[in-house]
Amino acid sequence: MKCRLLAVLTALLFTPLLTAERPNILFLIADDASRDSFGTYGCQYIKTPHFDRLAAEGVTFTEAYNCNPKCAPARACLLTGRYSWQLEEACNHNPFLSEKWVFYPYLLEESGYTIGFTGKGWGPGIHRSVDVGKKGFKADGNPAGHPFNRHTLKAPYRGMSNKDYGRNFSDFLTERPKDKPFCFWLGTHEPHRGYGKDNWKKAGRDLSKVEVPAYYPDTPEIRGDLADYGLEVEWYDTQIGKALRLLEQQGLLENTLIIATSDHGMPFPRVKGQLYEDSFHIPFVARWGARIKAGRVVTDFITFPDLAPTLLELAGIPAPSQMTGASFATQLLSHQSGRIDPQRDHTLLGKERHDIGRTDGDRLSVAYPARAIRNDQFLYVRNFKPHRWPVGNPEYGFLNCDGSPTKSFIESLSSDPTNSHFYQLSFGKRTEEELYDIVNDPDCINNLAASQEFASTKDRLWKQLETELSAQGDPRILGGGDIFDFYPNCRVERQQKLYGKPNYDPVTLFNERFQ
User: Fold this and answer.
1) Which of 222, 248, 290, 371 has a CA that sits 20 to 30 A from residue 408's CA?
2) Average pLDDT taken over every residue of the chain
3) pTM of the entire structure?
């Protein structure tokens, strides 16, 4: 009875907030920005005043995760409210996106919202028109919304996109019906590569202030590359500032839920696309006027599949059964800081095929299947096919790592007797199991999986991971994981050229095997 009474009181407490005027929603997402690149999370050499303002005037989530650390699968988790291994072809990068998935922006549109996006929405991949609800209409543009990409500008540094995100958002605000709430996705292309080399010199930056992770050698080449990256993070922050000014000018700031995040970590070796801390632990702050108590810091674990059901709940829309993430509206609206729900003490992560250029016998473009569990202290990773190259085969150029000065420098260390361990950390094959003490080793350098001292911890985490993935129907756990090798990568011609096989047809191969 006490539990029921508490549940009723909690519902009564939040009902006025959830049944009041529906919020406008502005979702800001960077492309490849690490969590520790923002002042809110302790970065000193990159300046992010607008992101930090959102944190100061809203709530900071310290334990936010992306489920699958690559652009297309991470964004698919955001839009569908499903865990990556439940998304079939969309667990992979560059898929042909199925018509079966529903996306939260179009569910909001069906309920009366005006939706749009600028910059990078879902992608890369090929999406088809999608039936989004009982009305039977089809989504156009992108799963993130209808496109607003008319305006361009001259970016301050080489390598940055010429899209004028702010002016495109202004168009959306001007053209939208004023009697409807809106949901807008502002996705910058920064800090995705490529960068103008040595942009940092033009900006007059001091390389001595750059922070170099422990998995890299500390060299001028790498410091310069990180400094160039920092300028692109700051350009993302500039777009946050432009959006805030537009909302303030139009009197929309106080009833707009603003969320700022990134899809995964920076496009550097051992980060983007890998199951290590700096790749999947993402920045996440939210502001919503008086609805969110300013300056709060929440340590509950949230993950990208949780976003869609959260936004639908705040808009007063039931989440469809297809969505398996759990709303964190309570964490947004609570006045508490710290751990609000004791059950939110861990998250699950995984990956399959991110990029082409990995083979296994006569199979081409195969996955590197891995799953992981991260709690307050440990990261446990299970690599299901450790005989494969995790970043792609070396003969094809380690294609699950973007080209960069840092990549080239670390590749040059492969036979260096003193520094070859940096090469192994970034590109070498991995053991079947990995275990890291994140509290004492946040850069994931010391694998504890073979240590007897941590054997019980490792076994307990594997059992928990296996049990929860089985309950979620993960094919990799239930014996059907090889299907991820066969879901077609949509860049067919590139694969034909890469492998020297002009007749390679992954679509036909998949249909012959699984249809």
Assistant:
1) 371
2) 94
3) 0.94
Cis-peptide into 159, omega within 30 deg:
no
Count of domains in the chain?
A: 2
Strands (E), 36-136: 59-61, 64-65, 96-97, 114-119, 126-127
Cα-atom radius of gyration of the chain, to the nearest Å? 22
**Locus of tokens 């076994």:** 459
Q: Is 290 part of any domain?
A: yes
Please report the pLDDT score of residue 129 as a whole number: 54
Question: CB-based burial of residue 76 (10 Å sphere; 0-12 exposed, 13-18 middle, 19+ buried)?
Answer: buried
Q: How far apart are CA 176 and CA 192, in angstroms?
A: 30
- In the listed set 345, 371, 386, which residue is the last one of a domain according to the structure? 345
Token representation of residue 484? 């991820």
Residue 498 corresponds to which amino acid?
L
- Same domain as 261, residue 296: yes
> 236 and 126 share a domain?
yes
Compute the distance between CA of residue 74 and CA of residue 90 in angstroms, rounded to an integer: 9
Asked if the structure places residue 6 within a domain, the reply is yes
CA angle 32, 37, 40 (to 5 degrees): 125
Phi, psi dihedral angles at 311 (to 5 degrees): -65, -40
In the numeric block, which tokens belong to residue 473?
């129907």
Give the lowest-confidence range in 63-67, 98-102, 319-323, 424-428: 98-102
Query: Are residues 92 and 117 both part of a single domain?
Result: yes
Place of tokens 């202030």: 209
Q: Both tokens of residue 55? A: 């944190």
What is the C-alpha separation between 344 and 282, in angstroms, rounded? 16
Q: For the residues 446-473, what does the mean pLDDT come to?
A: 98
